[in-house]
């Protein structure tokens, strides 16, 4: 096992496109580290540079204590799992698992032992004699994971490995990956655009945007204190409500007179936006004490919760997460109030967190 250090990693293509813009990452030994971001943000390019599949323009990559800038992929001692399973269609499962070991020239008894151990760990014992076309999508992905596992690498690199699975299978395989990483204690770098995968899997998450790292933190840190307006708008489903505010009479005041608690150390000479999670707002019957008037634009019933979209007099409607026991129809007049603690506040010009 080994940690991974990425220093000032930069990737620019001949046409001038910058895919990765001086990225710094420090991934601990035995950490499950997730790179999260929208398509085109540079996360896969960064992962491929770690693997040696993409040559960086500048910057350094260390795996453990080894500088790997000039090492080919085969000499970096990593295993990669791709979005597409990349299994050999003419080989049975046992031979797909054995292929990288035989390529290294390991003796056949050791190959059999490692294949059987990996198959048992990934619950593939009954599938060892099947070819990929006779396996389901989830089974094929487990074979791909087991093939990486048999190599016993210093680090696993995973590039959106669950994208092609349906929702139920994604949840099952996600659980298997998390259990496997905890059991092995190996370093794992996982790339995804799926927030649920990132929040449920990662010890820490790096949020990337336009080739740059916007924030690195634990799942709760990036959820509760997004470091920028981009992170605030990207993390969460529904995402944060971004409400323009002014400081008045010891309160943050939003459209319609919505009152929020003032965070300590708040600058008062800037154009400010408060990030308010949908669960930090409450919809009530109209004219209830401590509320401002609003109107229900729509209600989305999700079984265990209802997401209300409420017009409260601002340029943008707000989303409110409420328990399913509440019942307000579209166009109904309601009251709206903030029920959470001090929200994170951002400078509109710099788009950074200021309090």
Mean pLDDT: 92
Count of DSSP strands: 20
- What's the Cα radius of gyration? 24 Å
As a percent range, the share of helical residues equals 10-25%
Report the sheet-strand fraction: 25-35%
First-to-last CA distance: 39 Å
How is the biggest beta sheet arranged? Answer: 6 strands, mixed
- What structural category arises from helix and sheet content? alpha+beta
Helix count, DSSP H or I runs of 4 or more residues: 8
Question: How is the topology of this model organized?
Answer:
Elements: E1 4-12, E2 18-27, E3 32-36, H1 43-51, E4 58-63, E5 66-67, E6 78-81, H2 93-103, H3 108-121, H4 137-149, E7 155-159, H5 167-184, E8 187-192, H6 195-201, E9 204-209, E10 212-217, H7 219-224, H8 229-234, E11 241-248, E12 251-253, E13 259-261, E14 272-276, E15 281-284, E16 292-301, E17 306-311, E18 318-322, E19 333-338, E20 345-347
Parallel strand pairs: 3-8, 3-9, 6-7, 7-8
Antiparallel strand pairs: 1-2, 1-4, 4-5, 9-10, 11-12, 11-14, 12-13, 14-20, 15-19, 16-17, 16-19, 17-18
What features would you describe in this structure?
By secondary structure, this protein is α+β, with helices and mostly antiparallel strands. About 25% of the residues lie in helices and about 30% in strands. It is built from eight helices and 20 strands. The chain has helices at about 45-50, 95-105, 110-120, 135-150, 165-185, 195-200, 220-225, 230-235; strands at about 5-10, 20-25, 30-35, 60-65, 65, 80, 155-160, 185-190, 205-210, 210-215, 240-250, 250-255, 260, 270-275, 280-285, 290-300, 305-310, 320, 335-340, 345. The strands form four sheets. It has a six-stranded mixed beta sheet with strand order 6-7-8-3-9-10, sandwiched between helices. β9 (about 205-210) and β10 (about 210-215) form a beta hairpin. The protein is elongated, with a radius of gyration of 24 Å. The model has no long low-confidence stretch (mean pLDDT about 90). GO terms for molecular function: ATP binding. This is ABC transporter ATP-binding protein.
């Amino acid at each position: 096992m080994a940690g991974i250090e990425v220093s000032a990693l930069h990737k620019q293509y001949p046409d001038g496109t910058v895919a990765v813009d001086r990225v710094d990452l420090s991934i601990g030994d035995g950490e499950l580290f997730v790179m999260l971001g929208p398509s085109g943000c540079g996360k896969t390019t960064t992962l491929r540079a770690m693997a040696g599949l993409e040559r960086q323009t500048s910057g350094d990559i260390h795996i453990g204590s080894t500088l790997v800038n000039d090492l080919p992929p085969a000499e970096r001692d990593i295993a990669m799992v791709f979005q597409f399973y990349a299994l050999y269609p003419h080989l049975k499962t046992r031979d797909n698992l054995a292929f990288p070991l035989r390529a290294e020239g390991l003796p056949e008894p050791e190959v059999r032992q490692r294949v059987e151990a990996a198959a048992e760990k990934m619950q593939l014992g009954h599938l060892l004699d099947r070819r990929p076309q006779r396996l389901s999508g989830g089974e094929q992905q487990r074979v791909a994971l087991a093939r990486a596992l048999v190599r016993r690498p210093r680090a696993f690199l995973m590039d959106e490995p669950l994208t092609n699975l349906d929702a139920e299978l994604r949840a099952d395989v996600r659980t298997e990956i998390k259990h496997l990483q905890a059991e092995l204690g190996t370093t794992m770098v996982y790339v995804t655009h799926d927030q649920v995968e990132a929040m449920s899997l990662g010890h820490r998450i790096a949020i990337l945007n336009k080739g740059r790292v916007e924030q690195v933190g634990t799942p709760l840190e990036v959820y509760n204190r997004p470091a920028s307006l981009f992170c605030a708008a990207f993390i969460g489903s529904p995402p944060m409500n971004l409400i323009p505010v002014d400081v008045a009479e010891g309160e943050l005041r939003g459209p319609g007179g919505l009152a929020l608690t003032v965070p300590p150390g708040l600058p008062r000479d800037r154009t400010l936006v408060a990030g308010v999670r949908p669960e930090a707002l409450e919809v009530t019957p109209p004219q209830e004490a401590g509320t401002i008037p609003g109107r229900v634009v729509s209600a989305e019933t999700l079984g265990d919760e209802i997401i209300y979209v409420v017009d409260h007099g601002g340029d943008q409607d707000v989303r409110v997460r409420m328990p399913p026991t509440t019942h307000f129809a579209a166009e109904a007049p309601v009251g709206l109030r903030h029920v959470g603690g001090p929200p994170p506040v951002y400078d509109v010009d710099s788009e950074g967190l200021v309090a």
